[in-house]
Write a structure and sequence with these properties.
about 575 residues, alpha/beta, Nucleotidyltransferase, domain 5, five-stranded mixed beta sheet
Length: about 575
């Protein structure tokens, strides 16, 4: 039985394919389109998934879509009439809903076949149920408390529940216009970061400030006695006016959400290229602190309701790795699972798993600790690309390769590392990565000068052999997807300064045996005594590279020192 899962006409559109419950492939559309957060129909990702499964679209049994236009329909209508939401925003939403329900037509057009030839049954799964399923059904827990939390999907921003065996029971929801994701996005825009998905910049900026404005922010988002929260809608435009979102050429864009009242209370908003003042940094720290308080408030009440020590979390706010790293210390939960694609791309997998487990009553899949479900290429395919373009390279044996790369890292090289299957999700987990020696005090400046050209306040992450976590970090946990930030032990700050943020933390990735990335870090450890590498995504202001050609192009237009494509190593720039 084949299930094709889709996230379409929403930011981070994506697709996955399940065969008898096994995830054969999953990828975001942006990897193929080369447009960040692509929000159209994921035809390229669908084609990739079908190719990986070795089937055609007419062989798919079910197609799940992680949107349900009928969900909360009465609340949508009442809200629109009551608040006289602007016509353009309403038309945008209606047009989007129509596209969601015409998926067979889109598939027929994409694959140049008749709709009648697509036998698959279409299943719409509500957005947040898809999020919950993407976390719980992929987790190692037989039972768990569940939290989905993001901006909005199907008129809902937050959903809590419990998972037991192969079933999920939903408890509470927070309905539009109340949303912690909207709270964070609004202040992201206010602080001068206007692009869809810029929230991580506020998270990176926060440690440079002090949370001086938390009392003021408690008038913006209010905790309720029932364990939920609500927004003070005076600070936002979306509640009464609506907010227009566009998807022109697949590029998601959202107009400013904050109101004039927010400007009245917090002062003029920062323009995109204006200097970041201490006020901006302190406000970022305050927004981050309040966001953490809201998350802990939700989780503490959820624990009281379930008394279960496991928690699974998904949704865009689940990408807040700083908050994630504090959950076990600020709630009674003992174990936490967050999938590699906790954001909206992951709902493609979640909708498919919801059908497979919740609706079809199948047994759970094995726990997912591996995000490598994307594209892959052989040495022969890579050599063909390099030879056609007259690129000089050397192909090494497995053991030689580890020696050559680690020696280069130790000698100060910035290395593009392209191995195995691409990762599913927003983090490079050692298969599409740029690597640097973490002992270098100049690594951040080196990377930003040579490749990234990004804001200086944003940190770089450490990948560490999982058996050494206790030696380097204050908290020990299995963190395969870079989804948590933990304090680095003070005595290690000067040993790995390149991956130690200004507040003494690092967004770690624990790396387990069985992968070439593990072998590389182990070889580096054998030579230096440090079981850590600096890992950042293999890209330059674009989606993470997906193919050898894209990796080569990135290498050639930047000042990267070495490019490693499977066993092929490029160190020459001239063609």
């Amino acid at each position: 039985m084949y299930i094709l899962g889709i996230n379409a006409y929403h930011g981070d559109s994506s697709a996955c394919i399940l065969k008898d419950g096994e995830i054969i492939a999953a990828s975001e559309e942006e990897r193929f389109r080369r447009v960040k957060h692509w929000a159209g129909f994921p035809s390229e990702a669908i084609s990739f998934c079908l190719n990986e499964a070795g089937i055609n679209i007419d062989e798919v049994d079910y197609i799940t879509i992680s949107r349900d236009p009928s969900a909360n329909i009465h609340k949508k209508i009442i809200h629109s009439v009551k608040n006289l939401v602007n016509i353009k925003a309403l038309k945008d939403r209606l047009a989007n809903s129509k596209k969601v329900v015409s998926v067979k037509g889109e598939l027929a057009k994409a694959f140049n076949i008749s709709e009648e030839n697509i036998k698959a049954k279409i299943i719409n799964v509500e957005h947040h149920r898809s999020h919950l399923a993407s976390a719980f059904f992929a987790s190692p827990f037989k039972e768990s408390a569940l939290l989905s939390i993001d901006g909005f999907g199907d008129f809902t921003s937050t959903m809590t529940g419990v998972g037991k065996n192969n079933k999920i029971e939903v408890f509470d929801t927070v309905i539009y216009p109340h949303s912690i994701g909207i709270f964070y996005t609004s202040f992201t825009q206010y602080l001068g970061f206007p692009h869809y998905g810029d929230e991580y910049k506020v998270m990176g900026l926060a440690p440079y400030g002090e949370p001086k404005y938390t009392d003021q922010l408690r008038d913006v988002i209010i905790l309720k006695d029932n364990g939920l929260f609500e927004l003070n809608t005076k600070y936002f435009k979306h509640a009464k006016e609506g907010v227009s979102m566009s998807w022109e050429n697949g590029i998601p864009a959202i107009e400013p959400i904050f109101s004039d009242y927010m400007i009245e209370k917090f002062g003029p908003s920062r323009k995109k290229d204006e200097e970041l003042t201490q006020y901006h940094k302190d406000l970022a720290a305050s927004v981050q602190r309040i966001t953490e308080e809201v998350i802990f408030h939700l989780l503490n009440h959820l624990y009281q309701k379930t008394k279960i020590e496991n928690i699974c979390i998904a949704g865009g706010v689940a990408q807040n790795s700083v908050a994630n790293g504090k959950i076990l210390q600020n709630t009674p939960f003992k174990n936490i699972y967050i999938p590699s694609a906790g954001h909206d791309a992951g709902t493609a997998v979640g909708s498919a798993l919801w059908l497979y487990n919740q609706m079809l009553n199948n047994e759970r899949i094995s726990p997912v600790y591996n995000a490598y479900t994307g594209s892959k290429f052989t040495n022969e395919e890579i050599e063909n690309i390099l030879q056609k373009q007259n690129i000089k390279y050397t192909r090494y044996s497995d053991e030689e390769l580890l020696d050559v790369v680690t020696d280069a890292l130790i000698n100060g090289a910035v290395v593009g590392w392209f191995q195995g299957r691409a990762e599913f999700g927003p983090r490079a987990l050692g298969h599409r990565s740029i690597l640097v020696d973490p002992r270098r005090t100049d690594a951040k400046d080196l990377l930003n000068t040579k490749i990234k050209r990004r804001e200086s306040f944003r940190p770089f992450a450490p990948s560490i052999l999982e058996e050494f976590v206790e030696e380097y970090f204050e908290i020990v946990d299995k963190v395969p997807f870079m989804e948590k930030v933990f304090p680095i032990k003070k005595e290690k700050h000067n040993i790995i300064p390149a991956v130690t943020h200004v507040d003494g933390t690092g967004r770690l990735q624990t790396v387990q045996p069985g992968d070439r990335y593990y072998d590389l870090i182990k070889k580096f450890y054998q030579k230096t005594g440090v079981p850590v590498l600096l890992n950042t995504s293999f890209n330059e202001n674009e989606p993470i590279v997906n193919t050898p050609q894209e990796a080569l192009d990135c290498y050639l237009r930047t000042q990267m020192d070495m490019l490693v494509l499977e066993n092929c190593v490029v160190t020459f720039r001239e063609k």
